[in-house]
Specification:
- By secondary structure, the chain is α/β, with parallel strands linked by helices.
- Helices cover about 40% and strands about 20% of the residues.
- It is built from 18 helices and 19 strands.
- A hairpin with a 2-residue loop joins β4 and β5.
- Keywords: Flavoprotein, Oxidoreductase.
- Its EC number is 1.4.3.16.
């Protein structure tokens, strides 16, 4: 097997991965960044709205901390929250070094853009260009599948070159996992299609614990027009217009959702209200109406609330006009947006495996049961820099102790032989991996989505097991697609098992059969980890870091 070597390996090319790569490179390390997609262009970071929650004039770190804890239902790890709020402003403003324009607004910062939808690209593209100038090597499209370890320490990864379907091992003195979340494991999502949770699966196979994977955030505003693909709807429109059910009732009034901006600070409550109305048969074509008729007063209210200038509001109104067309309303429903749970890390991104670091949405513990709007981008700049620094220092301490290419190749071949053994000797009909992917995503959305119950979650497990058996019984087709499906099945099972284990409702996790928050029995994290061939789910206390 071919082997590539580096000091620090970064897996993932969003803001978290790019910042870690730049930081490690500035410290003199040789850095290789591998990614499934083109760096700077196709990550969740690139698709983001460019908003950062942070200390600014009139908004203190303590206020930021309190809002973060309130949004997370106090299930946040205090040490991670403290690290975030104390370093937020400095980290966000440091993006100016890469040529990113940063402006202050309300309770944080934002990145301006000439066109709505380009805000994230105005961050990721300059960062990718900076990384190239510094000498960071990019390697893509590459799917990192398994961590290579020797004597309990991370020494690299093996995976597949996606175009060639050819295995490759990458040897590294330190590895940083920055693969993002798993929103695309669900049928309705605003995530890029490749965000299926590869990092969660890699970490699980490596033996690492993952916490709070039942907490999947659903953004409440994505179009749901019959016969059309869903499109992201700006959060401000929920404050400018009205969300109405089929009876014309205002959902915010009906469910007493009083905080605003509602699609930022009450994403969980609003998503739940919308899905409840549709489940009761009070939707409109399976959706909720976002009504902007008679909205001049609503626009003025929203402008004041969001702190936008007239020029920005004109751009938003123009964007809304194109989205709505000749109508004064659009049908909307929630879409899978963000995973609060993930790999257990400390404030420097260290995991339980020496030499392996993780940063960004692939990690868990910071956001608790629900993420505060704006904290996702703040998280990746604060912890991306810290993880890059920690990985650089670890790699520097490994000088003279790295494995040879032959040793790494032998480690990788063990995994490769295992995969080939699982595929050999099959005589069944060919398996459509495209259909299996869609079936997994559908069962997660329908049975482990916004509204959950023991019955629906167990149905999801039955579906997952059936799809696993379908793969095992037939010829699976392209190897790259197979590895992605194996990851998707594993991530889906971790989410469902975690959701079954937590017998209460809290934040983004809502159980129809346990609709109340239960602080007596469930003020704790769920934790999933591998034990041999078994998946264990257990609890651990808040504040364990």
């Amino acid at each position: 097997m071919d082997v590539v070597s580096t000091d620090v390996l970064i897996i993932g090319s969003g803001i978290a991965g790019l910042y870690a790569a730049i930081t490690a490179r500035k410290k003199g390390r040789e850095v290789l960044l591998c990614s499934k997609v083109t760096p700077g262009l196709a990550s969740s970071s690139a698709l983001s709205q460019g908003s950062f929650r942070s200390e600014v004039s009139g908004f203190t770190p303590e206020q930021h901390r309190q809002l973060t804890l309130k949004a997370g239902y106090n299930l946040n790890e205090p040490l991670l929250v403290e690290t975030l709020v104390e370093n937020a402003a400095r980290a966000v403003l440091s993006l100016k070094e890469f040529g990113v324009e940063i402006k202050e607004r309300g309770k944080g910062f934002f990145v301006p853009a000439e066109k709505i939808g380009q805000e994230g690209l105005n961050i990721t593209k300059p960062m990718a260009e900076c990384a190239r100038r510094l000498g960071v090597k990019f390697f893509y499209p590459f799917l990192a599948f398994d961590l290579l370890q020797k004597e309990g320490q991370a020494v690299g990864v093996w995976g597949l070159l996606k175009k060639e379907g050819k295995p490759l091992a990458i040897a590294a003195r330190a590895v940083v996992l920055a693969t993002g979340g798993g929103g695309a494991a669900f049928l309705r999502t605003d995530n890029p299609p490749g965000n299926i949770g590869d990092g969660y699966a890699l970490a699980y196979r490596a033996g690492l614990p993952l916490i709070d994977l039942e907490f999947v955030q659903f953004y409440p505003l994505a179009t749901a027009m019959p016969g059309q693909s869903n499109r992201f709807v700006l959060a401000i429109l929920a404050d400018a217009g009205k969300l109405l059910n089929g009876e014309g009732e205002n959902l915010l009034e009906k469910y007493q959702i009083n905080e605003s901006p509602v699609a930022v600070v009450c994403r969980d409550l609003l998503s739940r209200a919308m899905c409840t109305e549709v489940a009761k048969g009070q939707g409109i074509a399976g959706a909720i109406k976002l009504d902007l008729s008679n909205s001049e007063e609503g626009w003025r209210r929203a402008q004041k609330l969001w702190g936008y200038g007239d020029e920005q509001m004109d751009g938003i109104k123009s964007w809304a006009s194109r989205l709505f067309g000749k109508e004064e309303y659009v049908l909307v429903m929630p879409t899978t947006h963000f995973f609060m749970g993930g790999v257990v890390v400390d404030p420097w991104g260290r995991t339980g495996i020496p030499g392996l670091f993780a940063v960004g949405e692939v990690t868990g513990g910071l956001h608790g049961a629900n993420r505060l709007g704006g904290n996702a981008l703040t998280e990746v700049v604060v912890f991306g820099q810290r993880a890059g620094l920690a990985a650089s220092e670890f790699a520097a301490g490994q000088k003279g102790t790295s494995l040879s290419g032959k040793e790494v190749s032998l480690l990788a071949l063990r995994f490769w032989d295992y995969i080939r053994e699982k595929l050999s000797g099959r005589r069944g009909e060919g398996v459509s991996l495209v259909k299996i992917k869609k079936a997994i995503r559908r069962t997660l959305w329908e049975n482990a989505g916004v509204l959950r119950s023991e019955e629906s979650l167990k149905k999801a497990l039955v579906d997952i097991k059936r799809l696993e058996e379908e793969i095992q019984s037939g010829k699976p087709g392209e190897l790259v697609d197979l590895l992605e499906v194996l990851n998707l099945l594993l991530v889906s099972r971790m989410v469902v098992e975690s959701a079954l284990y937590r017998r209460e409702s809290r934040g983004a996790h809502y159980r129809l059969d346990f609709p109340q928050q239960d602080d007596v029995n469930w003020f704790k994290h769920t934790l999933v980890r591998r034990r041999g061939e078994q998946m264990d789910v257990l609890a651990c206390p808040v504040g364990f870091l």
